[in-house]
Amino acid sequence: MRFLLLLSFLVSTALAAVPAELDAALKQFRAEPPPGWSYTLTSVGEGQSMVEHCDAARPEFDRWTLVQKNGKPPTADEARDYRELRTRRSRGGTAPKLVEQLDLATLETLGTDGDRSTFRCRLKPGDGGDNVAASLRATLVVHRPSHAIESIELASTGEFSPSMVVKVAEMNTRMTYHRPEDNRPALPREVLTRVRGRAFFFKSLDAEMTVTFSDYVWAGKK
């Protein structure tokens, strides 16, 4: 009984330590665009580029269109393959939620600057096979007046090996968001990803990718 009381006290203390502005921002945070919003997704990396459009007014399995691939309109085969891939993704499982992976018991307040506060914490594994989360730290920037997260950076703390044949020297993902305004919620702006590492001691895993969200239009019910 004493152990359970102590555990309850420690958990409640950790939860109470989350600053009010971060708690409010996390409650309304969405890593991806919320339902009802149409937008364009532009991905660039490794010498490849792709422009996709999501039309939220269309049925779930018919919302995505491949607009361009490597700067050109897609061929009939590319458009067909894209539709099949998107259909499989729609039928897949739900990805881990980033907020649920934040280990708020390890939260640090790094400082405040004007209307912004910056926090850092460890990450919990996303699933039983997640060998990466323990090597990352999350840094969150909160815009206090709007109670919104402006950016989240997931960065490695040093070299690590998610498997016996892979060594990662650097891993960094930075997600930025528009602040809510004019009856529009906080919406994703850009995702920058950078990886440096090797597999089997000779194969380079170095990669960079930029994903940009644009052309937001509300297509849901008023």
Quick summary of this structure?
The protein has 222 residues and is of the alpha+beta class. The protein has helices at 2-16, 20-28, 76-91, 98-101, and strands at 37-45, 48-54, 64-69, 102-113, 116-123, 136-143, 148-156, 160-163, 166-178, 187-199, 203-204, 207-218.
Provide structural commentary:
With 222 residues, the chain is an alpha+beta fold. It has one domain. Helices cover 20% and strands 46% of the residues. The protein contains four helices and twelve strands. Strands 1, 2, 3, 4, 5, 6, 7, 8, 9, 10, 11 and 12 form a twelve-stranded antiparallel beta sheet that branches. Strand 6 and strand 7 form a beta hairpin. The longest helix is centred in the middle third of the chain and has 16 residues, at 76-91. The model is unreliable at 1-16 (pLDDT under 50).
Biggest beta sheet attributes: 12 strands, antiparallel
- Helix vs. strand class: alpha+beta
The total count of helices amounts to 4
- In one word, what is the shape? globular
Which range best describes the helical content: under 10%, 10-25%, 25-40%, 40-55%, 55-70% or over 70%?
Answer: 10-25%
Number of strands: 12
Query: N-to-C terminal Cα separation, in Å?
Result: 52 Å
Task: Annotate the secondary structure layout.
Layout lengths: L1 H15 L3 H9 L8 E9 L2 E7 L9 E6 L6 H16 L6 H4 E12 L2 E8 L12 E8 L4 E9 L3 E4 L2 E13 L8 E13 L3 E2 L2 E12 L4
Antiparallel strand pairs: 1-2, 1-12, 2-3, 4-5, 5-6, 6-7, 7-9, 8-9, 9-10, 10-11, 10-12
